[in-house]
Amino acid sequence: MANLFRSSGPHIESPETIETNMWSVVIALIPALIAGTYFFGLYALYLVLASALSAVLFEKPFVKSKATFGDGSAFLAGILLGLTLPPVVPWWIPILGGFLTVVVGKHLFGGLGSNIFNPALVARAILLLSYPALMIEWVSPVDGVSAATALQLGSDSFSYTELIIGNVPGSIGETSVIALLIGGAYLYLKDYIDLRIPLSFVAGAAGAAMLFGQDPVFAVFSGGLIFAAIYMATDMVTSPVAKWAKIVYGLTGGFLTIFIRRYTPYPEGITFAILIINGASYFLDNAFEEPHFGEVEYVKKRVAHFSAIIMAAVLILLVGMTLIDDDDPYPGSLTYNHLKEAVPAAENFEIIERDDNDILFAARAEEEIIKDLVYISRNGFEAPIELLLSLEPAGSIDKIQIINESESPTLGARIKDQKFLSQFREFTTAEADQVMAETDMISGATYSSQTVSRGVQAGLRLLIAEQEAGLQDGVYQGQAEGAQGDIVLEITVENGDIVDLEILEEQETEHLAEPAYEELEAQLLREQTADLDVISGATYTSEAYMEAVQKAIDQASPESSTDGDFEAGTYQGSAQGHSGQIELEVVVEAGKITEIEVLSQNETEGLGDDAIEEIAAQIISEQSLEVDSVSGATNSSEGTINAVRNALDSDSESAETDAGSEEDSETDTDSSATWEEDSEGEEETAAEAESESGLISLADLNLEDGEYRGSAEGHRAPIEVSVLVEANEINEIRIVSQEESPGIGDEAMAELSQNLLAEQSLEVDLVSGATNSSEAFLKAINNALTGERYGSLEEAEDLQTAKEILAAEEDSDTDSSATWEEESTEETDEEAAEGGSNG
């Protein structure tokens, strides 16, 4: 009896404990954490660790464990929360999240094993509802520029490869599918997760995506669906135990995720979908519990009751989705009262034009049109934003009203401020194309502001389309850049209407683009306007298609200058390019530009010369000088356009005869002198344009020795600089204050300082991946040098060091100056300068 021991069960020993389980999941999350840190920087690593350590700290009063990290459950919950945060939230958000995770999500329900909801998702839901503007602020990987996520942009915004690797905007640990799958494979091999839940979750999401007409692969790979399916839905405390219960649990979660994405203001539905199925976990276990001896019939009845409830819920859901009130003559939230409030004097409102989202009304009084009303609905950041424009007969905006919006109450709702809306009253139909460029967006609510601007622009264009007399018969081409390449199309106009459209060239994703092309063509032939509805799942392709159609329509417009504006002949003209004068010869036949030949140019080989050819081809294709500049070769592009414009404004060089004569020689001599005068004028114009661009030319300044200070708004906060000037040259640049991204923005400013000191010019190349910081840094220096002197050099600290650095640089500049005059500019320098000018 000496070997007899008494203890409670279980009596089967296992090396697995709560601690080993929790830390194994933490290990599985390491690939996702590494990927998030790589794509979004060290600040993202801080956010995750701060969330985890805060959770551990806040749990200390609730547990008796002497271990530093307790049983690991709090650390794991904090890691999970941190990985779901946007990479640019304020520093205190993960600390507050750690508190919410442990106190509200876990111990408020009784601690580990008693919580019915995933603690990390409870915290994330509270943060999302409390600080919506902070929790939906996304940036692109590496460069940290504000950007929309794949779910917001649509299925053609990013390739499957980008989604799998994770090089897309999103939460810190949710973007890299491959990293998440590596961790999931580790958990499966360690037998910590049952594949029934992740696989059924993915299957439910894919099925729902197909049901709603979405790309199932994109739906699964985008957002946090893979992260949730592997690490959130499989939580042992909040997920069911029964085999069939796990399958139903996963299928329901996947379906709800896509449903919330589709029918609610939240682009990502993971958080609320999993919280809902967490609450149903106990019910599912009871419904699908394995029958005990003698309980088979009882279990069958329970399953039948459960199935009836599910079928009834699905039926109600489908009926609610498909019911449409056919008696309502107005879409969305628009009512007759809105129209009457906009134009009280109107007796009736006649619908002139209408499609799914946009309506043009004629407000009549005694059969006379006294105003035009345009209703526009466009998708905002959270939900559709509905606008009503009141326009005068002359085409000016009299009033703008937002009749419905569901943007964030903290920032997005500011689009209803009269200070923001009043600026649109300055636009007319003649300025429709300038609305987006000249509207001041609301800081922190850029996407919502842009949606309103797009709506106003669409309303003006709808009125323009109605007022136009019709199109000229003929065949016209248009071109625009799509998601994968250029889309080139051709429209045929007969009797003033577009009767056919043919796509000549495109490289879009076939299974997405083809249905979009068919639907867009049907809309175009029906509506006779390029302002069409974007096709869901093919946003970029749709917008490029509409842009190309608009360019073709512009050529067919009676106001277009494609026919009869130029007399047949050969014209010559020149303009200042990046490295010198660009001289061209333009051939006009039957009122159209048929050929553009380069007579002389000194642009960068492989960059500027290619830009000249591309711009010339665009001008001939579109029969218009309103073409897009070539990225990275702005000066060469604008020089080419100006040279063609100057040629068309000059007299024909071949109006009378083809043979050379003394008279022709005299004419050439005269035109040569005129060309020199025009060249001087163009150089002055270029100098003025440079001055108007906002960046001053250091060579034109005559600065007093001393210290100058200036600031400009950076990517995160204002950047303030101190510039030391001696002998009218910058000898040192000091950063007084900045809060740019560590390792990105600060390094960009250091690199720009070196380049600026070497070149003594603000026309330096922006640092790739830190565009916003680069532009703000140069703007701050510009503001410093154009302002008042801050102090003398003697008052500036470290003056002697600055002078030594200046002396060394002056010696280097003296040695290289003669070589610079003798040798031609290297290609890389020209590209950098040209790129900087573009920036």
For the structure shown, list the relevant keywords.
five-stranded antiparallel β-sheet, four-stranded antiparallel β-sheet, 839 residues, alpha+beta, 15% strand
Explain this structure.
The chain has 839 residues and is α+β, with helices and mostly antiparallel strands. It is 47% helix and 15% strand. The chain contains 30 helices and 15 strands. Strand 12 and strand 13 (718-726) form a beta hairpin. Mean pLDDT is 78; it is low at 324-328, 560-564, 653-693 and 813-839.
List the helices and strands and how they pair.
Blueprint: H1 18-28, H2 30-40, H3 42-59, H4 73-83, H5 93-104, H6 119-130, H7 132-135, H8 150-153, H9 160-165, H10 177-189, H11 196-211, H12 216-221, H13 225-232, H14 243-263, H15 270-279, H16 281-287, H17 296-322, H18 336-342, E1 348-354, E2 359-365, E3 368-379, E4 384-391, E5 397-404, H19 418-421, H20 435-438, H21 446-467, E6 474-481, E7 486-494, E8 497-505, H22 510-527, H23 539-556, E9 569-576, E10 581-589, E11 592-600, H24 608-622, H25 634-649, H26 662-692, E12 706-713, E13 718-726, E14 729-737, H27 745-759, H28 771-785, E15 789-791, H29 799-822, H30 827-838
Antiparallel strand pairs: 1-2, 2-3, 3-4, 4-5, 6-7, 7-8, 9-10, 10-11, 12-13, 12-15, 13-14
Helix pairs in contact: 1-4, 1-10, 2-3, 2-10, 3-4, 3-5, 4-5, 4-6, 5-6, 6-15, 10-13, 11-13, 11-14, 14-15, 14-16, 22-23, 24-25, 27-28
